[in-house]
Amino acid sequence: MFSILLVLLIIVAVFMIGLILLQKSEGSGMSGSSASSMLGGMLTGAAAGNFLTRLTAWLAVIFFILCAALAIVSSNINTAAQQSDLRNEIVNQEVADAPSSEVPAETAE
After folding, report:
1. What's the confidence (pLDDT) of residue 95?
2. Out of 24, 72, 86, 109, which residue is the most buried by the measure of CB atoms under 10 Å away?
3. How far is 38 from 100, CA to CA, in rounded Å?
4. How far is residue 9's CA from residue 53's CA, in Å, rounded to a whole number?
């Protein structure tokens, strides 16, 4: 489960990076001529800005939800491992402390 969530988080992060770089900025960064020529002018204008902004917002929400899910799954995995280690230690200690009935009694000669 942890691996699946981690892969999804990486995919969402890569898509977010791409969308953020495509958005028009004050300095007209990467969204200038190169992005519009690559996409054939498909994402130019006000409607494209709204679409990219909304899509980025949705991806950000998904990103934070995945981060929270990863934290919960990670804490459950660590808790289970710690409980298992503690349980093994208690069992080993009980076995070591138990009186051994198999040891024969010494006979006086």
Report:
1. 72
2. 24
3. 79
4. 19
Q: Structure tokens of 79?
A: 């808790």
Global pTM reads 0.54
Q: What is the pLDDT of residues 43-61, one digit of tens each?
A: 555 666 788 889 999 999 9
The residue behind tokens 């977010």 is: 16
17 pLDDT tier (thresholds 50, 70, 90): very high
Scanning the structure block, which residue is given the tokens 């939800």? 65
SS3 labels along 45-68: CHHHHHHHHHHHHHHHHHHHHHHH
Instruction: Report CA torsion sign: 91, 94, 96, 101.
Output: negative
Radius of gyration of the chain from Cα atoms?
Answer: 30
Neighbours of 56 (CB within 10 A): 17
Burial of 30 (0-12, 13-18, 19+ CB in 10 A): middle
CA 17 – CA 9 distance, rounded (Å): 12
